[in-house]
Amino acid sequence: MAAGDTSVSICSNALVLLGSSRISSFSDGTVAAKLAEDLYPKIKELTQGMYPWSFSLTKVQLNRLTATPTSIWTYQYSLPTDMLNGVPRRVFASASTNSPPIQEYEIQGDKLLSNNSEIYVDYQVDTAESAMPGYFVQLLTYQMAWHMAEPVTDQISKADYWRGVAVGTAGENYRGGYFRTAMNIDGAGQSPTVIADYMLTEVR
């Protein structure tokens, strides 16, 4: 884990990639620091949600509510309040390790509706910078360089360049660049079955 990394250090490193000066805090009075402060939370959330990063995943059994849904579903469950992006990555009807993800359910606001009497979900939580692995910190740095490039340098070409470094080209559906490298590194720690399941969930 990259224990020394912080939101400020990630943004500062991104600014250096753009040929700008480092920042020591988001309140150092510079335009770049204010820009980084405004953009960083959004870009961090976006980047975490682009893929089911292993370091951000957790599994819980959902709490079944006593009220019956006024719909085709039999049961309703409370979704975790700390869930990134508001949706689970995978949904199961059993805690068994051999249980496949289910496809028949519906998300309504902060509730999950299902005909299954038990529900377990894999979902992502917001991860502190000190707990992020180095490959994700690097991707986040490139992402910040991309999104700050035009306002910092006043050059669209710089933004295009760092977008390519971060996520590749339109021909790659913006799933190339260092993003692909980071996915491959992260996926090396998960079984092929789990990766395949997540890719099916992404398509769904």
Question: Could you characterize what this model shows?
Answer:
The protein has 204 residues and is an alpha+beta fold. Helices cover 41% and strands 13% of the residues. The strands form two sheets. It has a four-stranded antiparallel sheet with strand order 2-3-6-5, with no helix packed on it. Strand 5 and strand 6 form a beta hairpin. The longest helix is centred in the C-terminal third of the chain and has 20 residues. The mean pLDDT is 92.
Strand residues, percent = 5-15%
Structure summary, number of beta strands:
7
Q: Which oligomerization state do the chains in this entry correspond to?
A: single chain
Contiguous low-pLDDT stretches (5 residues minimum) are none
Q: Helix proportion of residues, in percent?
A: 40-55%
First and last CA, distance: 31 Å
